[in-house]
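Hey,
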Amino acid sequence: MGKIELIEKDYLKKSMPEFRVGDQVKVHLKVQEGDKTRVQIFQGTVIRKRGRGMGATFTVLKEVRDDVVEKVFLTHSPQVEKIQVVTKGKVHRAKLYHLRERRGGRA
């Protein structure tokens, strides 16, 4: 184990669910508005996972009224309160970028 991994292990989240590309997830985000904080849920399909340690990210794609919204989240960020896996996906690719062009029930 390198020096960076020794320092990072204190900051990594212990209770991360196992999720893969293609899964439907709910990401619970802490949002700061003035002096109040609230939890906002972003639900969509995981289209990419990359990195490891503190630099690990995943990308979630969601369709909102004929628009496609894509967000990149840091896996171990303090703003990400929790991640819930809604449904498991069965895909044969590591990156699902082709879903960006799909609309409606085809996605």
